[in-house]
Amino acid sequence: MSLDDKLNRLTARHEELAQLMSQARAPDPDDFVRMAKEYAELTPLVEAVAERRALLAEIAELQAMAADASSEAEMRRMAEEELRAALERVPAMERRMNLLLLPRDSADEKSAILEVRAGTGGDEAALFAADLFRMYQRYAEAHRWKFEVMAVSETGIGGIKEATAEIAGRGAFARLKFESGVHRVQRVPETESGGRIHTSAATVAVLPEAEEFDVEIEDKDLRIDTYRSQGAGGQHVNTTDSAVRITHIPTGVVVAMQDEKSQHKNRAKAMKVLRARIFEAEREARAAERAETRRSQVGSGDRSERIRTYNFPQGRVTDHRIGLTLHKLDRVLEGEALDEIVDALIAEDEAERLAHMS
């Protein structure tokens, strides 16, 4: 299929979706949501197609003017100048078109579930995990996304053993999905009198938030246990069985929530995380199948992979997947300069996928 045939087919599909959604007889709600999503995804491409056609038409017209021997020399010269300028716009237009034609990650527009866990390094790892959790909170605030802490297990000295948050906002997952993996820190702990640099680690997982129609979970496949919430040091948060542990029997995925005093709220939060984990597991299985023919350097999503080092003595952050080093550690941890890393990761992923386009 030629490029023009493919573009014509996608444009026709865009028009078909508009007609289906505007019909007097309303479609099934789930079908309408899917159609609206597909329509929104196709819209930037359809707009780019219109711009491309206009540019090619302009080039054809300028070529005819420049080649018209009956025209005045000055008119031909002006046409040639405008033609050169129009032709210079073609590569950027073609790249934009190819990017829009790349297979989209269906989860890119979704909100995200963020999970941060302290790894090796004891108290220092827990303090670093807290630093990362705050970094993502500030980053979310800078993008005007809603950051809601769902669960947090603190160490009592300012660190966290693990924490979960919902980052709600369109495209949050697209910008955060490459953060999954092992983050390493090199710094001198405050308790270290000899000034020795310690290396610790924390694990980050970013999951696309799944809607109910994304994942089918049957009640018979769930085991739900309730128990009394425990606070730091073992004190009871309350005297009712408000904590909830949900086990998805077919996959073995277990999620526990106890931060809310209401059992109903804890169950709702647990189901949200459970749904996201199962949805991500299904996505990873499909990605593993595709990886047999091509493994993406950036988008492997392997959470056991060391992806980034934060070196405090040198004030630098290095992303090992793309060899990018920024001497802006403070600004990265404030969430201000994190976009420089995210943009570079997205650009690398796009370049690799473009290189493998058939």
Account of the protein in words:
This protein has 358 residues and is α+β, with helices and mostly antiparallel strands. 46% of the residues lie in helices and 20% in strands. The protein is built from nine helices and eleven strands. The protein has helices at 3-21, 29-67, 73-88, 90-101, 122-142, 172-176, 263-290, 329-333, 338-355, and strands at residues 112-118, 146-154, 160-168, 181-187, 198-208, 222-227, 243-248, 253-257, 306-311, 316-319, 324-326. An eight-stranded mixed beta sheet has the order 2-3-1-5-4-9-10-11. A three-stranded antiparallel beta sheet has the order 6-7-8, with helices on one face. A hairpin with a 4-residue loop joins strand 10 (316-319) and strand 11. Helix 1 crosses helix 2 (29-67). It is flat.
What's the SSE blueprint?
Layout: H1 3-21, H2 29-67, H3 73-88, H4 90-101, E1 112-118, H5 122-142, E2 146-154, E3 160-168, H6 172-176, E4 181-187, E5 198-208, E6 222-227, E7 243-248, E8 253-257, H7 263-290, E9 306-311, E10 316-319, E11 324-326, H8 329-333, H9 338-355
Parallel strand pairs: 4-9
Antiparallel strand pairs: 1-3, 1-5, 2-3, 4-5, 6-7, 7-8, 9-10, 10-11
Task: Produce a short descriptive summary.
With 358 residues, this protein is an alpha+beta fold. It is built from nine helices and eleven strands.
**Side-by-side strand order of the widest sheet:** 2-3-1-5-4-9-10-11
Distance separating the two termini: 11 Å
Shape verdict: flat
Rg estimate, integer Å = 26 Å
Total strand segments: 11
Q: Enumerate how many helices there are, as a single number.
A: 9
How would a crystallographer describe the biggest sheet? Answer: 8 strands, mixed
Q: What class would the helix/strand composition place it in?
A: alpha+beta
- The percent range for helix content is 40-55%
